[in-house]
Amino acid sequence: MSKKEKKHKQQHEEVLQEEVTQEEIEVEEESTPEDEITKLNEQVAQLEDKYLRASAEFENLRKRMEKEKYQAISYAHEQFAKDLLPVIDALEIAMNSSDSDEGAGKIKEGIGLTIEQFKKCFEKHGISAIRSEGEFDPNVHEAVMQVESDEHKAGQIVQVFQKGYTIKERILRPTMVSIAK
What we know:
3-stranded mixed sheet; about 60% helix
């Protein structure tokens, strides 16, 4: 392409650019107040949508935080309860072993009353013993051994070694059991 052709092409492009710019100016000048109102209404609608979404997101966050706060309060005593479980176990063992002593009646009665007080306190705080009759449930029981038993079907609990407890819906400690083969 020669210099003359390049110059001519460049002039042609400049003329086209001027025409496009003039058309844009004419289009902008041709916009009516109704067009402006329509544009502004669209912007308002977009901003309202953004506001509503942000507001909904904030409300969801507030609800989630409140739920987490109530869960933290509900389970605040969990460690305390876990620490008291061995105390109840020891008292129950003492009560069961005191049957052989002659003066054990009063000791056994005192231990029994103490255990009942513990259980009432636990109930007050939503702590309860796990039932351990019937079928083995891996969600709440921990099988420590399997034994042969003519009296029980396979998978049934034969003996409880250590009681399990829950606090509300959570497991504090699973029940340790032996199950029939």
